[in-house]
Amino acid sequence: MSLPDKMKAMVTMGHGGLDQMVLHKDWPRPEPAAGEVLIKVAACGLNNTDVNTRSGWYSKAVTDATTGDAFEEVSDEDPTWGGAPITFPRIQGADICGKIVAVGDGVDPELIGQRVITDGWLRDPSDPGNKDKTGYFGSERDGGFAEYATTLAVNAVPIRSDLSDAELATFSCSYSTAEGMLTRANVTDADTVLVPGASGGVGGALVQLAKRRGARVIAMASDAKHADVAELGADKILSRAPENLRAALGDEKVTVVADVVGGPYWPNLIDVLERGGRYTCSGAIAGPMVEFDLRTFYLRDLTFTGSTVIDPQVMRNIVQYIEAGEIKPALAATYPLEELREAQAAFIAKQHTGNIVVIP
Question: What is the structure's pLDDT at 293?
């Protein structure tokens, strides 16, 4: 197969607002190095990580909710998920669905033509369990907001599914994040799981994956999105932020809170956890700074777990669930690559329920 030397790519030039993303129509196409594959991108999902990395929200100098806009102050030392600087220009986008069109040295050429989705966590092949040696696709290396992308061969996961490319591009980040959270919290069929922000990508994945484990799921979402959340299988749906959460729950006994929202409402979530309950977190879109009463934490024997870098097996499990039809995509909208700025604006404004996907 003859491959072009140049490609179309949306390139992030630095931390800041939406104007930092610049479309290039003649960006050099990458070549796969040893142990890597070249993927022709058919679709690439959009996630909070893309927005937060561009804006620099991960910096501890930022205390506001995620806005997707430029912040007044972003520290040069810790502007990314890993607390370290990244190199610009950078092509973002972690959730690729596409086909392998070339391979580097040491990679089986039989993989060419294979349809794949990407595992975003880039692990050291010699020390894959070491979280300190882990990077993220579209952050520590170029990702999928382009016509072509390279990644480690082990991060291109073969998939066999009748779902469309856009539908498959909704799974990688959101669903692996959600599965990682539920795994850290040891969720089983004995649990009742409360999911704030259930209409978002990770929130919707939490609903489906907690139900897959047999748990009872109580979802929280704005009233306009209740019908969409109901289709994901939630057992009970509450408004986004009930004035009296305990009263809204009634007789429900919440044993797990799976949260990516945080913000000023956060103490209400902790207050409704049963004794011995678990709180698991992988985001703070409503704000990272919360009011925390240590007495609630220790007097109720609560367990808190943060979840970011996940085990490699999690992504393989997600693929198995997709192929078995045990989970379904929540595709909200697709945008052409040229409209990535508009897609991010819609994502930030939460105009859609579920995941947004970009098509090169």
Answer: 96
